[in-house]
Amino acid sequence: MDLLKSPLYSKYVQSNAKLVDFAGWEMPISFSGLINEHESVRNSAGFFDISHMGVISIRGINPKEHIQKFFPTNLYSFSKGQGLYTVMLNEKGGIIDDLIIYDLGEQEGDISEIFLIVNASRYEVDFSWIKNNLNEKEICMSNAKKDKALLAIQGKDSFKFFEEWLKSSIAYIPNFGCEYKIFEHILPEEKIFFSKTGYTGENGLEILLSDKAANNLWDFLVSKNIAPCGLGARDTLRLEAGMHLYGQDLTEATSPYEAGLGWLVHLENNHEFFGRSFLEEQSRLGIQKKLVGITIEGRAIGRKGCEVFNGEETIGTITSGSWSPTKQKAIAFAYINISHAFINNEVQILIRGKKFKGVITKRAFYKKNI
Q: What's the whole-model pTM score?
């Protein structure tokens, strides 16, 4: 089967990017090299094509009322022009996907619109799950991305460069805020969506725009010596920042409490949602495993599936692991038996038949300087 291609695919070819199959899309793993791209984001700015991700539009009168049952987080805790990170659950409290919901407010009359930006590998699953459990007479669902591109500019200088391209200040938009409107000089007939969100631990923007505008923005950023970045740097950046990757750190077999996302579960709100009874019981009885961070001594990297030991006892499994270019050490996430999942606990990680010393840490290995 042919791989899906981004509207910006020709840019990969022109840039001699190294391409891989990612969730059915032909995407760049790197352009100039993972370390260079990683450091560009940490030191100034870099940009990513994230057009493989899904964007679901939900329109109707008070759409939050209709989709609240899919999320354990109170959707009335944020309003127009704001985004909310949350998880979508199945009946057993397992995580179908982690995503960001954006409230775009009223678009025509009393019809409001919400965007869900979801993981590439989960778009079809997410769309079907919502569609099959919604009253479509009251709500309209659609693919908001279609032939558009989704770009992410990340790093401390990202706002400055985007404002220069946009010819407009975005200082009034708060962290996790968003905007959805027409900018006449860029595209007089079509709205551009952008938000102050990202997946790197740095200031950043995620932008949904037409093929033509996206190519223009790409060329502008390259002209400013901003590095295009691939999925390799995206993975090391998110891991350093303590951010989950669906399919590795999150699955339908893990709950928000186990994944360290209990803060997204608003049981006190008393709204009904899929998996509520399961999470109420888990909240009462406690969890058996917990996702933690681990630093590993030496240069061996603990990859997904590596077992974690306490002496001869297997106590967990690594879900994500990499070398940290910023910290200059091997780092990983792992689900650990709750009785061993405490900060500074020493463990051993089995890597290629040999055990290496590890220390349990908080999941965020890196935090930006404010």
A: 0.97
